[in-house]
Write a structure and sequence with these properties.
30% of the residues lie in helices and 26% in strands. By secondary structure, it is of the alpha+beta class. It has 2 domains: 117 residues, lambda repressor-like DNA-binding domains (434 Repressor (Amino-terminal Domain)); 116 residues, Umud Fragment, subunit A. Helix 2 packs across helix 3.
Length: 244
Amino acid sequence: MSRLGDLIRTERIRQKLTPKQVAKKCGVSESYIMAVEAGTRIINDEQARRILRTIGLKQQTEADFSLDDIAATVDLTQVQPAMAQAVAKPKPALQRNPNGEDEKAEAERVAGSVWLDALQSVLKNVPVMNAIMQPIDHRLLPVINGRIEGAAPDKVFYFKVPDDSMRGFRIHSQDLALVVPAHSPIDGAVMLVEYNGHRNLRKLKRMDDFTVLLQHYDREYESEQVQLNELTCLGRAVRVEFEP
């Protein structure tokens, strides 16, 4: 099952709707909805938004999670057990104000869906840092067993690549490199380093216990041999998200 299909199915079940009911609301066939949920039918973003809006999922939540963020990053296999536990809890009795309105029902509607509450324990707003290490944005990443890529969630960040000096290694300007803590040079790794007052990604090669080779590749391969006491390692790039 795809993440998007799982998201649609999860919200449909929470709303106690059958595939047939959702299909009727969306003006499509029941087999269409079932195929989307099963991940055997690819649909575009606007179709996905329309289905999710139809079954009651808001595009923006109290935690500033956009629909695109959730569908792209959340691992719903981590969420569903927490959601099921939350759903199993008895609901408080509704209270009516003098005007006859269900105050509790209105409060629950505004607060958002049960499964979204469960998401907040498995998602982390990871900052995007620029070349002077100032936060300029954020991305949502799943937290699995209390870690992101094996590191403490509050120690992980994205680095927005400032130039094309690593283009030969398929890392381009404005790409986002996910960086995890690493304060010693790792042979063969792409690391975020500070050298001569500048911060950038470089591929490292250990020469000996005191020297490291900083490699980069724009139009041609270049390298610079530096002493470890002149270099600060800020972290290791474990993956790169390419900007279109």
